[in-house]
Amino acid sequence: MNWQVVSADRPWQDWFDSPVLFIASHEPPHFTESQYANLRGFAEAGGLIFTQADAGSAAFNKWVPELVSKVCPNAELAALPPTHLLYSTNYRITAPPPLQGAGNGSRLMVVHSPTDLSIAWQRRDDKLQSDRFRLGVNVFVYASGKTDFRNRVASPYVPDPVGEPVRTLRLARLKYAGNWDPEPYAWRRFSRLLQNQTGEALDLAAVEADSLAPQSAPLAHVTGTAAYTFTDAQCAAVAKYVQSGGVLLVDSTGGQPAFARSAENGLLAKAFPGAKLAPVAADHPLMKDVTLKLRPYAADSLGRPPALRMAKVGRGYVIFTPLDLAGGLLANQTWGILGYAPATCEQVARNLVAWSERLPAAE
Questions:
Q1: Residues 240-284: pLDDT tens digits?
Q2: Number of domains within the chain
Q3: Residues 320 and 197 in one domain
Q4: Residue 104 and residue 138 in contact, taking contact as beta carbons nearer than 8 Å
Q5: What pLDDT does residue 214 have?
Q6: What is the CATH number of the domain that holds 214?
Q7: What is the DSSP annotation of 215-276?
Q8: Are residue 119 and residue 257 in the same domain, yes or no?
């Protein structure tokens, strides 16, 4: 473990030697719009921004909501409840210093301490203020997960591919009034990875339900983090898409149970009444070279990894998991996510893209 000072003007990709970026001051930082864009890029790519008001500075505390509005504009800064995972990730802290947080419904992207924690770290006051030291460990473990630390030069960032793709597949992201795109960087990162490995790329399109068409987008993805009631018209449009030959992937970002229930008992039940989701067989093309493995948090919570489930409806297919699948394409290890390990997510996504591309011709 180590630390380093980084410049706000450097590309955010350079900061990924660490999963945590620490910002502390007595005064509000005067970031430019390009620097705020760097901060947002770091957070959307899986990083955690940890801020602190030195000496409990009122001016710095007043600025933090502005930071949140730039980094995760759909979220609000709120006090973390005593039951939050951040207070028990590694050490269980029964009387923790107050923290505030903001995120995307799956993970925290900004954690703020309105009081000065690091003064105890600077003084090495680990005897009288041990909880402040333990809370610092918890923040790092939350961001890095309970896995072997990666080599700092093995960044999860995927560089832009060189040259044009040999082929492009359109992936429709179903847009609705709820939190339909909690991890916008996940598929973008995977598209770069796919093109670097195979020469093929994804054309990512936000699509309303009534615009879904397998002829233009053979693969569609629906996700979310909170309960949402899909309209009858949306359910009918999704049903038409699949029956016409489309492949629909439905997962829950972060493995949030509220959205998983909305998707399974609402969207899928209404769109495909009578369809039975069955485990995907081990010899199915979706499972080629796949070892189903859970993230450590999910393994602690669930034990064995559940299979993906699938149903054939008309000429198309529905693939469903109540766990996080597409969010794992970030390749981050944030604690508290009920989902498959990043390597599993990447291989399933590769297979899904290849299979859905071949499927209409095969049909």
A1: 999 999 999 999 999 999 999 999 999 999 999 999 999 999 999
A2: 2
A3: yes
A4: no
A5: 94
A6: 3.40.50.12140
A7: TT-SEEEE--SS-----HHHHHHHHHHHHTT-EEEE--GGG-HHHHHIIIIIIIHHHSTT--
A8: no
Separation in Å, CA 340 to CA 190, 196, 197: 15, 23, 21
Query: Do 177 and 276 have their domain in common?
Result: yes
Domain containing residue 100: 12-144
* 4: in domain: no
C-alpha span between 336 and 340 (Å, rounded): 12
Whose CA is closest to 221, among 195, 192, 197, 242?
242
Domain end call among 144, 179, 207: 144
Residue type, 268: L
Whether residue 162 is contained in a domain is answered as: no
pTM for the model stands at 0.94
The residue assigned the tokens 């969010």 is: 327
Place of tokens 């990162």: 189
Helix axes 184-198, 342-362, angle to 10 degrees: 70
DSSP 199-215: SEEEEEEEEEGGG--TT
Nearest to 181 by CA among 214, 215, 145, 205: 205
Query: Sheet containing 20-25: which strands, arranged edge to edge?
Result: 20-25, 48-53, 108-113, 100-103, 78-79
Q: What are the distances in angstroms from CA 176 to CA 11, 80, 238, 326? A: 32, 28, 12, 17
Q: Which residue in this structure is represented by tokens 């945590």?
A: 20
